[in-house]
Amino acid sequence: MNCPNDLRYTNSHEWVRQDGDSVLVGITDFAQDALGDLVFVNLPEVGDEVEVGEVFADVESVKAVSDIYSPVTGVVKEINEELIENPEKINVDPYGAWLIRVEKVTETEDCMTPDQYREFLENQE
Amino acid sequence: MDKKTPLYDIHVAAKGKIVSFAGYQLPVQYQGVMGEHQAVRKACGMFDVSHMGEIICKGPDALENLNYLLTNDYCNMADGQARYSPMCNEHGGVVDDLIVYKVRDDCYFLVVNAANKDKDFAWMQKHAFGDVVFTDISDSVAQIALQGPKAEQILQKLVEKEKIPQKYYTGRFDAVVKGFRCIISRTGYTGEYGYEFYMSSEDAKAFWEMLLEAGNEEGLVPCGLGARDTLRLEAGMPLYGHEMNDEITPLETGLGSFVKMSKKNFLGKEALVKKGEPDVSRVGIKITGRGIAREHMPVYAGEQKIGETTSGTYCPYLEYAVAMALVSKEYSKAGTALQVEIRGRKVEAMVVDLPFYKCQK
User: Fold this and answer.
1) Cα(first)–Cα(last) distance of chain A, in Å?
2) What is the value of pTM for the model shown?
3) CATH code for the domain of A113
4) Which of A36, A40, A65 sits opposite B33 (nearest CB)?
5) Residue numbers of the domain that contains A28
6) Which of A115, B158, B199, B224 is the most exposed place for a label (fewest CB within 10 A)?
7) Pairing mode, if any, of strands B304-315 and B53-58?
8) Where are the beta strands (DSSP E) in chain B?
């Protein structure tokens, strides 16, 4: 399973990327593979507050719906609007297809390093 | 402990994602539901449906037993003909829905849902009368479905055209495909042109591989349960446990044409007569707002709750989300605006005619 080295990971299979003074949040390769072909993404609005461990979005594949949990507390600065029309981009490029950009981050979950996440995935099987 | 179908090893080798379904380990998908769904609509797909149950009903009183057990009328059938029917309990609810093939005058071949097989068999034995024997042959029979506009072209590579059933809902019980004895049936659960094959469990693997190879040029791909469900939903086909169950009557769920009230007697008739015209009906719903409805979601007309969805999904071919629902009859007309409550959010929707998708051929 692909886990880029510059990201941090949660045990609910989100990834976080520090990008200047804000962070990008998406779902991992493992998550998109487990969900299957995504057909719908429900994102928050710009200006919404997100909180560590709270649901901020949901994604649906043909068969299932899954909540996405925020690894940070902060304010949504930007949403990836492209995904609303083309949710399958998450399947194609899970680490390029970020869901939200969060600013004013006051708290970040204690995330896993790529190695820790890989080990976590192995233990899941 | 789940059972495995004779094709289990093939699914695993082909990287099928295995899930537990109706007591069987089956692939929910191989490459992906979207691609598999499209393959069936545009080319061809094949499914392992060996989990389905097969029961033989045999004896001089076979016909009378079926006409009592089932709501449809099995008189006037030709050999090889198939006929769908709900099977009702005393309260008019549905024990199962099944397909009955007439093999010959005193012998019928019944195909039932995997999850209901044991319940069905017990029910049939309990209500059997006269000179008839029901035999559950499910474990020795495998079933493979070949579905899609290219299905006929693929099958013609393996069998002479005259041996292939042409008419929908007919089967050939004497078929031999490249040395494999099997039943070829012009049926399916995808809304697409296609066939279902029944063969001995021992032949299933070789049969599967033979079909897959024959359909290589036509783009035949193996498909999982995920696509089977989106295809049947897109085609507006009811599924036991969703659109019907022990409490929902066939009349409520829009299967009235398979209930022959003119028959002298059948199980559930008295209850159905007593209940009279149902006040709910099964409708197709197109989600016009943003969201995907799933089963058991409340349906509203403004502030008033008027029913509940029974199945729902995103339709890969139509490219929008649909649902089936049981709603108060007054809201069942096509064009009626409704709302479906999807995870706490009311989403705009509209009643549309079923099926959502109809094949051209």
Assistant:
1) 12
2) 0.90
3) 2.40.50.100
4) A36
5) 12-120
6) A115
7) unpaired
8) 3-4, 17-21, 24-29, 44-48, 53-58, 82-88, 94-104, 107-112, 133-136, 141-147, 171-177, 180-185, 194-200, 220-223, 280-287, 298-301, 304-315, 320-328, 337-342, 345-352
Q: Is B33 on the interface with A (CB under 8 A)?
A: yes
Distance from CA of B34 to the nearest CA of A (A): 7
* Closest CA relative to residue B86, chosen from B227, B245, B294, B286: B245
Name the band, by pLDDT with cuts 50, 70 and 90, for residue A1: confident
A92 touches chain B (CB under 8 A): no
Note whether residue A72 is domain-resident: yes
Instruction: Tell me the pLDDT of chain A averaged across its residues.
Output: 93
**3-state SS, residue B169:** coil
Which amino acid belongs to residue B60?
Answer: P
The amino acid occupying position B118 is D
Q: How far is CA A90 from the centre of its chain?
A: 10
Task: Enumerate residues 6+ apart whose C-beta is below 8 A from B24.
Answer: B2, B3, B4, B5, B50, B51, B114
CA distance B340 to B7: 39
pLDDT in tens, A76-85: 999 999 999 8
pLDDT at B361: 63
Cβ of B291 within 8 Å of Cβ of A40? The answer is yes
Three-state DSSP at B267 gives coil
A6 domain-assigned: no
Largest CA distance in chain B: 63
List of chain B residues with pLDDT < 70: 361
> CA angle at residue A43 from A41 to A47, to 5 degrees?
170
Query: Does some domain include residue A125?
Result: no
pLDDT of amino acid B315: 94
Domain count along chain A:
1
| Global ipTM | 0.71
Q: What residues 3-32 of chain A have any CB closer than 8 A to a CB of chain B?
A: none
A46 in a structural domain: yes
